Amino acid sequence: MTDNKRTFESTMTELEAIIKKLETDDVPLEDAISYYEKGMRLSKWCDEKLAQVEKQMANIITEEGEIKPIDLEEE
């Protein structure tokens, strides 16, 4: 899946499937390394996507239509 068509949810599902494969005892070492590398790439993508969304969420629109920054560290 290309990055511009990738969704956070589908990436998490793919990452969870990789984790399940790695948790089995019958994965050959070469495959385990490949799964691990792919999992790390997917994890990085998810982390970057969450950081991007956090930046977008750092502002809220008031009832008057004004953009107001919010402090995400408060909660």
What this model shows, in words?
By secondary structure, the protein is mainly alpha-helical. It has one domain (8-69): Orthogonal Bundle (Helix Hairpins), CATH 1.10.287. Helix content is 60%, strand content 8%. It has a two-stranded antiparallel sheet. Strand 1 (59-61) and strand 2 (67-69) form a beta hairpin. The chain is elongated, with a radius of gyration of 18 Å. The two termini are 35 Å apart. The relative contact order is 0.11.
Q: Return the CATH topology.
A: Helix Hairpins
Counting copies of identical and different chains, the oligomeric state is single chain
Measured distance between first and last alpha carbons: 35 Å
Helix content: 55-70%
Number of helices: 2
Helix-strand topology string: HHEE
Task: Provide tags for this entry.
single chain, 75 residues, mainly alpha, Helix Hairpins, two-stranded antiparallel ribbon, elongated
Can you give me a brief rundown of this structure?
With 75 residues, this protein is mainly alpha-helical. It has helices at 8-23, 29-57; strands at residues 59-61, 67-69.
Topology record:
Blueprint: H1 8-23, H2 29-57, E1 59-61, E2 67-69
Antiparallel strand pairs: 1-2
Helix pairs in contact: 1-2
